[in-house]
Amino acid sequence: MKAAVLHAAHQPLTIEDIGLARPKRNEVLVRTAFAGLCHSDLHFMEGLYPYPVPCVLGHESAGVVEAVGEDVTYVQPGDHVVTCLSVFCGACPQCVTGHPNLCENTEVKLMPGMSRRLTWKGEVLHQFMNLSSFAEQMLVHEHAIVKIDPDIPLDRAALVGCGVVTGVMAVFNAARVEPGSTVAVIGCGGIGLSAVNGAALAGAERIIAIDTQPAKLELAREMGATDLVNASNADPVDIVRDLTGGGGVHYAFEAIGSKETAEQSFRMLRPGGLATIIGMIPVGTKIELHGADFLRDRRIQGTSMGGNRFRVDMPRLLNLWRQGRLKLDYLISGRIRLDQINEGFAMLKSGATVRQLIDFA
Ligand SMILES: NC(=O)c1ccc[n+]([C@@H]2O[C@H](COP(=O)([O-])OP(=O)(O)OC[C@H]3O[C@@H](n4cnc5c(N)ncnc54)[C@H](O)[C@@H]3O)[C@@H](O)[C@H]2O)c1
Ligand SMILES: [Zn+2]
Ligand SMILES: [Zn+2]
């Protein structure tokens, strides 16, 4: 089967014929329908985060079950599923205390370099985050998928697999935004726009969207932003302060992954405010905060995919899409073929697109 292989950081992905093992106990073989291009994949392609190579990237996808291994009762061939990298065991301390996204069982959630499901030219090909979605088929643990209703279009469903669940659940699970509060979101790509949408669902009174691309800000308005800030030639912290009568926001979300914008997210908080860093700040980069700002109950936190419980959250989100309240349609910038993946990532890097989906049909 065909897959896009990363041989080394800073090199284009190449389309290769790769091998896939048969489903073992608790494993499911999925025919990929759509896979989204997320900025997290790009961070690995650019060497900002390490991963064993060669590997097949991709972690935001939906597809159809083709075969199941021994003991799998959750799905059967023909079922439609969304994948998630938050593989859970259901029994470790994190899982049983309500944090399955932080599962500590490394026999279920394999550490980088441990999967032996893929091969290329007879050698080990590393599986990215237990998924590797930039491939025509995926062999995954049954706890890496959620079953969805067959009438849901698989392109919309794929988006929920990373960007949407992360952005929306950062608002609900990580920050717990309250109705009537003020929210700022820095970065309006797939994750940031989903956080804007989540803030609207949470009943935030003001939702200030910040980006450097006017087209992204217009999309943010469609997702529910009340104020748009172009940060290309102005300090967004000053503008957010002006917009909030000098006080700052209750909740800020950083959805880019840079030192500068992470620091901005904390600086734009009012006393008692909470900044949530969603973006992947490059390994080794430190962020600097003024210690005195902590005296007035300001907080800052990270989030692993919005603290999701994806088997519950993803079907709920897709129902909200059915009702028109989750605006997935605005996130799709285009559909591409697998062999257009490098051009697709160049577009993502330029800031021109939100989500491009590889269509495997
Ligand atoms: N924490 C998690 O679990 C998790 C999950 C998924 C993605 N992420 C991370 O979230 C981040 C966003 O991912 P994405 O796919 O939405 O990326 P993206 O590239 O689609 O979006 C980033 C947006 O930021 C804007 N931007 C860039 N520099 C800016 C600046 N200085 N000020 C304001 N706006 C600026 C761009 O125009 C773009 O619209 C990435 O770092 C990704 O790795 C984290
Ligand atoms: Zn992602
Ligand atoms: Zn666990």
From TrEMBL:
InterPro entries: ADH-like_C (IPR013149), ADH-like_N (IPR013154), ADH_Zn_CS (IPR002328), ER (IPR020843), GroES-like_sf (IPR011032), NAD(P)-bd_dom_sf (IPR036291). Signal peptide: none annotated. The lineage of its organism: Bacteria, Pseudomonadati, Pseudomonadota, Alphaproteobacteria, Acetobacterales. Its cofactor is Zn(2+). GO terms for molecular function: S-(hydroxymethyl)glutathione dehydrogenase [NAD(P)+] activity; zinc ion binding. It comes from the Bacteria. Residues 8-358 form the Enoyl reductase (ER) domain. GO terms for cellular component: cytosol. Belongs to the zinc-containing alcohol dehydrogenase family. It holds the Pfam family ADH_N. Gene3D superfamilies: Medium-chain alcohol dehydrogenases, catalytic domain, NAD(P)-binding Rossmann-like Domain. This is Zn-dependent alcohol dehydrogenase.
